[in-house]
Amino acid sequence: MSSTQAAPRAEDIEAKGRFVAELKRALHEVIIGQDELIHGLVIGLLTGGHVLLEGVPGLAKSLAVSSLAGAVHGSFNRIQFTPDLLPSDLIGTEIYNAREGTFSVRKGPLFANFVLADEINRAPAKVQSALLESMQEHQVSIGGNTFKLPEPFLVLATQNPLEQEGTYPLPEAQLDRFSMKLVVRYPSKEEELRVLDRMAKTENTPVVRAVATLDEIRAARALVDQVALDPRLREYIVGLVHASREPASVGLKELVGRIHYGASPRATIWLALCARANAFLDGRAFVVPGDIKRIAKDVLRHRVIPTYEADAEGLSSDKLVSRVLETVPVP
């Protein structure tokens, strides 16, 4: 939000954010538990940020994405990434009509509001790179022509942290295109009992209720952009990002040589956007430090890359980000 733009009124946030509670309720009717996953997906929806989901198989990652699309009347395509996938399998190709002697464009599955890139690290680099233009520019090139993708457009990708043999880890440039990386964890014992009660049936295909429209999403996004972000919190966000690059500057000398790459300027942008969305979800017209702290790990964990020494010492990205959050003073 610019310094001359007024913050939205609380009643406007309440009115245009009313669908969010119903959206989360509809998703929970299909998905048991996974509160942080659903919260992160809704933030991605409100900010237009692509989301990377990491977790072992069977944790409802794909179900959460398809349910989100169904709950907001959005078009949805699922792409199973495999080693033999080609870029044209994503973006589409030109088809030659021998009878008429002309080419026609056949659009690929990227032409949808919600695209599930399932097990994205199973496909080679040339296929992964085919996503870059679509994720950044919301357009693709087919046969020398450029085609706009539908809006809103979200890529929601999954990857399995296990079984790394035969996979193609995402390069940092592609990871940086994702606004957040959500780690999907095992359910609690109580949640798993509820999963058993609901899903242990021969006919157990859950169907999500459609509770929101794409127009409501667009209106909410416009309001999220207006949520006030105090200059001191802007400095706090920049301070967190810079501390990930130069930990010694904030007294974290023990992390020198433990961070291979710090967060990029995109991290600064997404920290601000996601903090505004978190404030919107809480019904506030202004960001507080708690908004930034809540989403910081999701925004930073795939951008703060540990060195081999850090890995050997058990210092994961999450632990490095936690040390930064503990050290950088909160305004």
Per CATH, the architecture of the largest domain is 3-Layer(aba) Sandwich
N→C terminal distance = 20 Å
The overall average pLDDT, rounded, is: 87
Total beta-strand segments:
11
Helix content: 40-55%
Helical segment tally? Answer: 14
Q: Name the shape in a single word.
A: globular
Structural Rg: 21 Å
For this structure, the CATH topology of the largest domain is Rossmann fold
The largest pleated sheet is described as:
5 strands, parallel
Element string (H = helix, E = strand):
HHHEHEHEEEHEEEHEHHHEHHEHH
Q: Which CATH class of the largest domain?
A: Alpha Beta
Give the count of structural domains.
2
What does this structure look like?
The protein has 2 domains: 9-198 and 209-214, 3-Layer(aba) Sandwich (Rossmann fold); 227-331, Magnesium chelatase subunit I, C-Terminal domain (Helicase, Ruva Protein, domain 3), CATH 1.10.8.80. A 5-stranded parallel beta sheet has the order 2-5-8-1-9. The protein has a two-stranded antiparallel ribbon with strand order 3-4. The protein is built from 14 helices and 11 strands. The protein is of the alpha/beta class. The chain has helices at 10-16, 18-30, 35-47, 61-71, 88-91, 125-137, 172-175, 189-199, 214-224, 231-245, 265-281, 289-300, 308-312, 317-327; strands at residues 51-54, 76-80, 92-97, 102-107, 114-118, 139-142, 145-148, 154-159, 180-183, 259-261, 305-306. Strand 6 (139-142) and strand 7 form a beta hairpin. Helix 2 crosses helix 4 (61-71), helix 3 (35-47) crosses helix 11 (265-281) and helix 11 (265-281) packs across helix 12.
